[in-house]
Amino acid sequence: MSNRADLQASLERGIAALGLNLPADAVGRLLDYQALLQRWNATYNLTAVRDPAEMITRHLLDSLAILPYVQGATLADLGTGPGLPGIPLAIAAPGREILLVDSNGKKVRFLREAIRSLKLDGVRAVQSRVEDVQGRFDCITARAFASFADMLRWGGHLLAQDGIWLAMKGKQPDDELPGIPAGFAVRSMHLLRVPGLDAERHLAVLGRVHA
Predict the structure, then answer these.
(1) Is 68 helix (H, G, I), strand (E, B) or coil?
(2) Which among 85, 125, 144, 196 is least surrounded, fewest beta carbons within 10 Å?
(3) Angle at Cα 102 formed by Cα 154 and Cα 49, nearest 5°?
(4) What total number of domains does the chain contain?
(5) Is pLDDT above 90 for 210?
(6) CATH for 193
């Protein structure tokens, strides 16, 4: 079992490798989130990742890798699970309104406890199917949530006119491109290098097509 000092050193190395400049209290709060997730996970099985050191890499750093692409005053994290990437993004760049969406009741209970105990201002969690959520958001994040076709069919109505959709994928999702619904397009594709992670990671940035 890794102790907090080891986890902190690993997290700080990863943040430096990503070239991120976070608020002074961010590392401590990210570790508090990881500890809370680990504690709840023992009972509620919120994530398949059990090892604390692996949580730092596969959950925290993986989420933070997309921070440079996040924009706007409002963000919806769809299929957030235990709050990924939404909660790390809320801690790393406070000040935006964030809606965490998941259909799983026990995950949403965990999210509400995390929001309360970590004092995450402006962050809300809702238990809902994506297609039933209302509102328009400047930025939408989705981590290994669904194909582009399904993602945009269920949640496309949530994207503001000039908003961006950040779809986190493993391998480059070329096979999904033909399924993108009319009215949306991929604006850019980025290979992400997550410190300590061997697996491939890609970020697709999608947006509305303006006539």
Answers:
(1) helix
(2) 144
(3) 120
(4) 1
(5) no
(6) 3.40.50.150
